[in-house]
Structure formats: structure tokens, C-alpha cells
Amino acid sequence: MIIERTKNEVIFRLSANTNIDDLQDMSDLLEFRELSNKSNATQSDVDALVKSIKKGRWAKTKARI
């Protein structure tokens, strides 16, 4: 593996036989970290959003049953 830093980006060079699923998982993690780094959300904001999502999901499930 070779890691190269340019002025605007970081480039990872891997052998062609690298497992593509593992590479996708790593890409998803790096994308999440990059996006969350720019976020101004607090933990209480995240907790409130999760609570709201779970409540809505339960209501939809309950309506289907």
C-alpha cells in the first residue's frame, strides 16, 4: 500500500487483489468521518433525532400490524 498526499487530497494505492468489499467499508468510514468532522451537531441533537426516528418507525410498524 502506498499513501500519497498532494496539495488537495490523499491518495491510497492498493494492489488489484484487494477485497473490494473491505475497501468499500473503509471508504464509507472515511466518508462518514469527513462529513461528521464538518458537523456542528451536538450529542443532544443526535439523541433527539434518533428518538424521533425510532418513534416514527414504531408508529409505522404498529400501523402495519
Give a brief outline of the structure.
By secondary structure, the protein is of the alpha+beta class. The protein is built from 2 helices and 2 strands.
Would you write up a description of this structure?
This protein is an alpha+beta fold. The chain has one domain (2-64). The protein is 62% helix and 12% strand. It contains 2 helices and 2 strands, in the order ββαα. The chain has helices spanning 20-37, 43-64, and strands spanning 2-5, 10-13. Strands 1-2 form a two-stranded antiparallel sheet. A hairpin with a 4-residue loop joins strand 1 and strand 2 (10-13).
Apparent shape: elongated
Q: Helix proportion of residues, in percent?
A: 55-70%
**Average pLDDT value?**
89
How many structural domains can be distinguished in the coordinates?
Answer: 1
Give me the count of strands. Answer: 2
Strand order of the largest sheet: 1-2
- Proportion of β residues? 5-15%
Structural class: alpha+beta
Tags for this entry?
62% helix; elongated; two-stranded antiparallel ribbon; 65 residues; 2 helices; 2 strands; alpha+beta
Topology readout:
Layout: E1 2-5, E2 10-13, H1 20-37, H2 43-64
Antiparallel strand pairs: 1-2
